[in-house]
Design a protein that fits this description.
The complex is a heterotrimer of chains A (180), B (253) and C (360). Helix content of chain A is 38%, strand content 25%. By secondary structure, chain A is an alpha/beta fold. Chain A has a 6-stranded mixed β-sheet with strand order 2-3-1-4-5-6, sandwiched between helices. Classes of the chains: A alpha/beta (180), B alpha/beta (253), C alpha/beta (360). Chains in contact: A-C, B-C. At the B-C interface, β1, β2, α3 and α5 of B face α3, α4 and β9 of C.
Chain lengths: 180, 253, 360
């Protein structure tokens, strides 16, 4: 098994931390993992992206040109990465603020209203976990939820562990977006 | 009376400090470094610190200080002695670490290291020999060179418009919260030598007591660089240097 | 502390490794993309646990001279920086090498010249392997390609530095510094006691304990005939290091038609490129130098035998390629491919370069 994933959006949407939680969850599931960010001024409100690879085998390049799954959380990211999905791969994007929708027919596309779902939950900080839920549901690799919880515990500082139930709820909410 | 009756231990009034090595110093006749080395050697031995003292020598005339005083030494790059001393002092907190620096080392190329080590309050002693000139490289202008003073790079005398003002780095050190003792001394008379020795002893005591940084400036001559006889150089120093660099304690906590 | 599996950035891993390998002191100055080393150390507060000293210096110059002082006193000390900061450290590194002191220096390379960019680069290969500062000297240069190697090379770097009384450098890039991977942190190695240090480093300047003869650490010798002897001693040590410590990795070299030589994280991009090339029926082998100095000259020469060409892939304008060419004596085509300015080439780009520059 090998999943090559890129998560792209605005800085501040929790892109990097979602990648970290995903990578840690994979690690808890005994996978080899890499987490490779774009860094620098992009950390301050521009576009941010992170490549996460989960694999049974040792991972070679942490930098990729094409992906099994692309998650795009704004128009720039969608424009940049929709073409980078491997044929037969998955594209998940948040429809809020999107005016040019993807048209590829050789991939599976999941438009989701992640922002709307987050607002229903009543805590905007849970946004990235809603997106994570959609990803976990969409991937052919089924990451057991118990290892995702372990990943959350490892990623979050102790003082934020009280937020784990909220994150779990957000992940379930995200899963439900694809089940509709 | 035979001479052998006179040369007896009980008649001995003075001897070379045990920590001064039996070698010829490379310093010019009349140079202040020899006296200052002797005082450090005396203070270290008298305080019983021989086996826990580490000196850090500079680049400048005193670069070979490690050949003369019988303690452990590290020879630093130009200006970096306070950084070198910082690490040794922090890693061996029971040791007493001192730097020995000239005016170029302390107040030109090493200004940042001097100020920051002092500002952090490192438990070190900084011995600062200020003779207002670069002795080793052949008598060029130092930050502490006086206005009007002739050097190899101010052949017509230092000018404020060309070269800026003499830098009183010791005064700067005195206002830093990290320093506990900042003093300015000289070694041109027996009385001044005694005062300087007392100042060095106090500085080493401060380091032992972990009170912070002690700075002992010693206003000195460079008769070769100044192109004067040793005696004339001492007179010139008293007449000209002390006005800009007055002797005495600047800070004593 | 027991062995532990964690997910962390290369830079964070360096900090954990320093503590766990019993480092006595770290002296650094913030610079992107490696500030997490100092930040992580300050957060972990090792002075409360192992007794390790951590100090934010006033400059890179001060930091390397603190390392010089600490090393001169026999302690296991290190610093870290990124390219512009490592340029500032060069004088101090030359002194450390000249005085035959063990120390560890990490360079998480960013693009230059000048202030350059904060994105990844490998453009300090020349600086690290050919001297960097003044005078005839060498650092032992280790090039990690994974976060695990960032950890391992802290231990290896200190071991080699103390074995040969010579400074070692970990030459990493922004990729391996900033990426997170699974990493196994080693069990805590206790710091040496002062007595152990005095025994292991009888040359160190830390006070004439028990009235021993004084130690002087210096790189100055004005008498030419004596200075020549010192230089010859250094060179003899470098020959010894070349003989014993050359390290490299080979991937599918046997049976390949083409060779890629690459170091650090770029070698991993090339490994992926090798897989893509294989799907096209192009057989590629990879040699990854692990020690950049000493360079695995013989290994590259052996691997090149019977090959049709070599592509050197580096994040610079062509630096390691000079050592590769020296290794193979122009017996086969050797070409360079690299991206500059902080751009990381994709595996596909590497395959394309191989096709255009070597296969043709």
């Amino acid at each position: 098994m090998k999943e090559e994933i890129i998560i792209a959006g605005f800085g501040g949407q929790g892109v990097l931390s979602m990648g970290k939680i995903l990578a840690y969850s994979g690690l808890m599931d005994d996978k080899e993992v890499t987490w490779m960010p774009s860094y620098g001024p992009e950390q301050r409100g521009g576009t941010a992206n992170v490549t996460v690879i989960l694999s049974d085998e040792k991972i070679s390049s942490p930098v990729l040109d094409s992906f099994d799954t692309v998650i795009a959380l704004n128009q720039q990211s969608l424009d940049k990465f929709a073409s980078k999905v491997k044929p037969g791969g998955i594209l998940i994007y948040d429809t809020n603020g999107i005016h040019n929708h993807p048209t590829r027919e050789d991939i599976t596309i999941y438009p989701i209203d992640a922002m709307g779902a987050t607002l229903e939950l009543g805590n905007s900080k849970a946004y990235n976990m809603v997106v994570m839920g959609a990803l976990l549901e969409a991937m052919s690799y089924k990451l057991p939820m118990e290892n995702v919880i372990k990943g959350l515990k490892k990623s979050l500082p102790e003082r934020h562990h009280k937020l784990i139930p909220l994150n779990e709820q957000a992940i379930e909410k995200g899963r439900s977006l694809l089940q509709k | 009376m035979d001479i052998k009756d006179i040369i007896r231990p009980e008649n001995k009034v003075y001897s070379k400090p045990e920590l001064l090595e039996e070698v010829h110093m490379h310093y010019c006749p009349g140079c202040s470094h020899g006296v200052i080395h002797k005082l450090i050697a005396e203070v270290v031995a008298e305080m019983g610190l021989t086996d826990k003292t580490v000196g850090v020598s500079p680049v400048g005339c005193a670069v070979f200080a490690y050949n003369y005083i019988d303690v452990d030494w590290v020879e630093a790059a130009h200006g970096r002695a306070p950084a070198v001393a910082t690490a040794i002092s922090r890693l061996w907190p029971e040791d007493v670490v001192f730097t020995y620096q000239g005016d170029g080392d302390m107040s030109a190329i090493g200004t940042a290291e001097s100020i920051h080590a002092a500002n952090r309050g490192e438990n070190i002693v900084m011995v600062f020999v200020n003779n207002a000139i670069y002795g080793m490289t052949g008598g060029q202008m130092a930050p502490t060179t006086l206005i009007g003073q002739k050097t190899a790079t101010t052949p017509y005398g230092r000018r404020v418009d060309l070269n800026g003002h003499p830098l009183e780095i010791t005064n700067l050190m005195a206002i830093l919260d990290g320093t506990c003792y900042v003093t300015r001394q000289s070694v041109h008379t027996p009385g001044n030598v005694r005062k300087t020795k007392a100042a060095l002893k106090k500085a080493f005591e401060n380091a032992l007591a972990k009170k912070g940084t002690s700075v002992v400036e010693i206003v000195s001559t460079c008769n070769s660089g100044w192109k004067m006889s040793p005696e004339k150089a001492n007179e010139w120093m008293a007449q000209n240097m002390f006005e800009k660099y007055p002797l005495g304690d600047l800070k004593n906590l | 502390m027991k062995e532990e599996v964690r997910l962390m950035k290369g830079n964070e891993a360096i900090a954990h490794a320093a503590i766990r390998y019993g480092c006595d002191g770290y002296f650094g100055y913030p610079i992107t993309p490696q500030s997490e080393v100092l930040e992580t150390l300050e957060e972990l507060m090792p002075w409360e646990t192992t007794g390790m000293v951590v100090l934010q210096a006033e400059s890179e110059v001060a930091a390397i001279n603190m390392v010089y002082g600490g090393a001169a006193s026999g302690k296991a000390v290190m610093t870290s920086s990124s390219s512009p900061g490592v340029s500032l450290k060069q004088e101090g590194i030359s002194y450390i090498a000249a005085a035959s002191l063990p120390a560890l220096i990490l360079n998480v390379m960013r693009g230059g010249p000048g202030l350059g960019t904060i994105q990844p680069s490998q453009a300090d290969y020349f600086q690290a392997t050919k001297g960097g500062g003044h005078g005839d000297y060498h650092l032992i240069v280790l090039a990690p390609s994974t976060v695990q190697e960032m950890v391992d090379f802290v231990g290896l770097g200190f071991d080699l530095a103390f074995k040969y009384c010579n400074p070692a450098m970990i030459l990493a890039d922004g990729i391996v510094g900033q990426m997170m991977e699974k990493v196994v942190l080693p069990e805590q190695r206790p710091r040496r006691t002062d007595e152990e240090i005095r025994k292991q480093c009888p040359w160190a300047a830390n006070g004439r304990e028990n009235g021993r003869k004084r130690n002087v650490i210096t790189s100055l010798e004005l008498e030419s005939s004596r200075m020549e002897v010192i230089n010859h001693q250094l060179q003899a040590r470098y020959r010894e290091i070349e003989k014993n410590e050359t390290r490299w990795e080979e991937i599918d070299v046997e049976g390949a038609d083409y060779l890629i030589v690459a170091f650090g994280s770029i070698a991993r991009i090339c490994t992926k490129a090798k897989e893509i090339a294989a799907e096209k029926g192009i057989k590629v082998g990879i040699v990854r130098p692990i020690t950049l100095w000493p360079f695995p000259t013989e290994a590259v020469a052996r691997a090149a035998e019977g090959k049709k060409g070599i592509l050197c892939v580096e994040l610079n304008a062509g630096q390691m390629i000079e050592d590769v060419r020296l290794a193979v004596h122009d017996n086969l085509p050797v070409e360079h491919f690299g991206r500059l300015g902080g751009i990381i080439p994709s595996p596909e780009e590497v395959v394309k370069a191989l096709e255009e520059k070597i296969i043709k």
